[in-house]
Amino acid sequence: MRQSGEGPAYHGRITKQGRGHARGVLVEAAWAAARSPGPLRAFYKRIASHREKHIAAVATERKL
Predict the structure, then answer these.
(1) Which three-class secondary structure state does DSSP give residue 61?
(2) How many angstroms separate the CA atoms of 43 and 63, rounded?
(3) 18: alpha, beta or left? (left if phi > 0; alpha if psi -120 to 50)
(4) What is the C-alpha separation between 3 and 23, in angstroms, rounded?
(5) What pTM value is reported for the model?
(6) Are 60 and 47 a contacting pair, CB within 8 Å?
(7) What are the pLDDT tens digits along the chain (64 aa)?
(8) For the chain, how are helix, strand and coil distributed in percent, rounded to 5?
(9) Residue 30 to residues 2, 8, 33, 43: CA-CA distances in angstroms?
């Protein structure tokens, strides 16, 4: 989330700002978290049940 001042909050996609390598590592970590038992797997499965798997992986990445 990015918010500045009194305006509405920005809930957007993963942006291309920042290091690309770090984003790639986070995506791989999200896929690993989705395969191993725990609260992140439950989060991934809940999102993936009504969205695409890749969208659920990015949501898990943002949670990390």
Answers:
(1) helix
(2) 9
(3) left
(4) 21
(5) 0.71
(6) yes
(7) 555 667 666 666 777 777 889 888 988 999 999 999 999 999 999 999 999 999 899 889 988 8
(8) 60, 5, 40
(9) 21, 28, 5, 11
